[in-house]
Amino acid sequence: MRASLIQIAVNEDESVDSRRQRVAALVREQAGADLVVLPELWTTGAFAFEEFGREAEPLQGPTYETMAKAASDAGVWLHAGSIPERAVSGSGSAAQDGTLYNTSLLFSPSGEPAAAYRKIHRFGFDKGEAVLMGAGQELVTVRLPETTLGVATCYDLRFPELFRSLVDAGAETLVIPAGWPERRRAHWTLLAQARAVENQAFVLACGTAGTHAGVPQAGHSIVVDPWGEVLAEAGPGEEVLTVDFDPAKVAATREQFPVLKDRVLGLQPPRHQG
């Protein structure tokens, strides 16, 4: 299976519409890949908080339409990163009152919608995304011919219980678009490898380059195998990271080293003694 992670640089002098068209062209250039992955909030920049409300769009808005067409033109499964979604009537079962969500879009090779995922863990510690956007409530997996994707976004990477739930739902390849800051790049690499090892799954983590509202981005998109080996890693700038991997390695790893079978669930909380 071939995956291409497009590590987009967000240039504040480039309009959102111009970036959409440029990224669509990059997606079309990946014809021949099986899966293409874009980063988190690449239309606005993950730290451009003031842009979220101005550039928010309905689920089936201009980014949806542009990326659906690009997926169809390239004939690829496309994880189109995430957008600031403004919930409106008909866009889902959750609040339809104008709430903003950090929402990932996934498309089939025919350009049909495959899934949408509203980010569950919002970053900011009572500011930024944490107060501007609503929290998603649903786990998302997507079945491809070769593997089952488990979908998460950026800050979700710090919460291992989410990924265990995705594995319990059948995930074999964990796809994580992000707008991760350079100052915590060491955490990005460490956590991507940890999520791969503890879940015996492939991790495809696609970050952004450039600077978002004054916050330098980490770049260094990474692909990790179920043993924690880094198969490919990007540099700090805009680039396309392409890697071939064998999804069958997940089942082989879990059979060879069946650690997941030894999980102990439903433990009682500790009792205070003395």
From TrEMBL:
The keyword tRNA processing does not apply. The keyword RNA-binding does not apply. It comes from the Bacteria. Pfam families: CN_hydrolase. Residues 1-247 form the CN hydrolase domain. GO terms for molecular function: hydrolase activity. Keywords: Hydrolase. InterPro entries: C-N_Hydrolase (IPR003010), C-N_Hydrolase_sf (IPR036526), UPF0012_CS (IPR001110). SUPFAM superfamilies: Carbon-nitrogen hydrolase (SSF56317). Belongs to the carbon-nitrogen hydrolase superfamily. NIT1/NIT2 family. This is Carbon-nitrogen family hydrolase. It comes from Streptomyces broussonetiae. The lineage of its organism: Bacteria, Bacillati, Actinomycetota, Actinomycetes, Kitasatosporales.
